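Consider the following input, taken from an annotated entry for Arginine--tRNA ligase (Paractinoplanes lichenicola).
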Amino acid sequence: MNLEALLAARLAVAFEAVAGEPVDPLVRVSQHADFQSGAALALARRLGRAPREVAAEVLARSDLAGLATAEISGPGFLNLTVDDAVLAAPHPLDPPPGAKERIVLDYSGPNVAKELHVGHLRSTIIGDALARLFTWAGHDVVRVNHLGDWGTQFGMLIEQMSDLDGSYSLSDLTAFYRRARVRFDSDPDFRTRARLRVVSLQNGDATTRAMWHKLVEQSERSFVADYERLGITLTMADFSGESSYQDQLASVVDELTAKGLLVESEGALCAFPAGFTGRDGEPLPLIVRKSDGGFGYAATDLAALRHRTRDLAATRLLYVVGTPQSNHFAMVFAVGRDAGWLPGGVTAEHVNFGSVLGPDGKMLKTRSGDTIKLADLLDEADERATSPAVGIGAVKYADLANDRRSDYVFDWDRMLAATGNTGPYLQYALARIRSLLAKAAHEPGPVVLADPAERRLALTLLAFEPAAAAAIEHREPHRLAVHLHELAVAFTTFYEKCRPILGSPSRLALTARTGETLRLGLDLLGLPVPDEM
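Applying the prediction step yields:
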């Protein structure tokens, strides 16, 4: 049940009758009542009437029977109090209504031959929460992990493997990559051979391709191991590397050329979508084919976009990638629209996010300045927490509780705290509920709201659907995370003020409903639930 939507729908009829045209009732949660509508104030200015007079007429024309009572407050607000019978009645935890879509959700996106690190944390966690939310809402979600598994760096890596003559170990992918990078930068002979390897790779040389496959397979196993520890739903079946689009790049160029969308600029073929300019005010190019005949990220992203709408028949594309890539994706989407690959009714969106910072306010790194491996971070979570589930829950909730667009500081002490807006606090609330229900000698019964804390908990429970719907609509998981924290706080207050609970069928029912809601909410965010705490 979405109380805000129900109240707004009832009031909208009255406001339209007074205004002579549709009016948004502006129903919002309020500290002065359960909800409040301030629409009468703006309407009064438009009609040239006193706000309280307009509010009184709206109230007189409103049909709130069986849902809420209303009174005029202050200069012309409508304070709305939901009927206790509505709050006390059981309500199913149904997904929000609406048309269902086929959604391609692109997230995580690590590079092969490098292990997952803290820089992948936000894309992976936010993307997976959105995948869970959209799936629950009934959409057909196609998860895509767009791996960086192609390009000039693989000539360097494969040549390093070749020189080691089978004695290499890929157990530490990051160290392997660094050694190859040092040789590439310092050894001209190795650099030449690495560049020739790129040609062999692109031409399909069997030996070179076999070593490349070994790199990719080892990397994918490493990724999956980290995903499983983190509770991420991506599997190898969702991996779609840049390599999978290589045979499509020439046709992308041909199609864009035929449509007059590519211009030669200094030997390169570039698209110049309208509205994009550089610092010098000149049109900004999106380089589709480089001057040496090679293809860059833009060509691969355009091929992927075309494939996802044309072949996968997706109606919505979501790319969970850091904010610095905003301009790149805006240009790719603009070219996609110009090419007809994003026709009417098909949308593409860059779901951007901020960075994970250390206590010094800079990008989170080790003391030596190296990027932190995700596996090492999860190991530390295990060591610091009372259980792996608590540690993982703390890390994921700390990310999801923040607006994705904002940076946040990674603080172990704060995120592992059992109090405050933390994952362990929510996990503990659910563990307490499970313990209570396990001890109960009675079955839950009809709810009677005798105490303000009971009423507040019942009202907060009914805020779940609008919170989940808003998280989906705006691609902002923190909206659901904030609600779950509010629910845990309301339950804690109820637990402290409304004892005994075990002997009251009404309070057991409220407790059970809270447990069901918290469990579902934590699952939608991908947070584990420990058996006990």
